[in-house]
Design brief:
Length: 109
């Protein structure tokens, strides 16, 4: 049994400025997390939904990167408005936001 209905992890990893994958933190992930956390609190979901900063989620090229568990839904969240949509639609409404889902490429072995 999970402690939270949803657990949101927001990558706040910081990479070197010349890293080809980019850096979620430089792309605004701190503001993304704070906006999500604020909405969770405003909707009285504290204790039911947890929003945390995360270290590297190894998807910075898609960043800012957010993953929602237990659904294991990965998102590219370019704006605060997109973060708010995820909370409203996915967390509260139960409908993942398809347009923001990351379509991972298969990794080479």
């Amino acid at each position: 049994m999970s402690r939270f209905k949803h657990h949101i992890f927001v990558c706040e990893n910081e990479r070197a400025p010349d890293n080809p994958k980019g850096c979620c933190k430089r792309k605004g992930s701190v503001d993304i997390r704070l906006a999500m956390k604020k909405l969770v609190d405003e909707h009285g979901l504290r204790g039911e939904v947890r929003c945390n900063s995360a270290g590297c989620l190894d998807a910075c090229e898609y960043g800012p990167t957010v993953v929602v568990y237990p659904d294991a839904t990965w998102y590219s969240v370019p704006t605060v408005a997109d973060a708010e949509e995820i909370v409203r639609e996915h967390i509260i409404g139960g409908r993942p936001v398809e347009r923001l889902k990351i379509a991972f490429k298969k990794r080479q072995e």
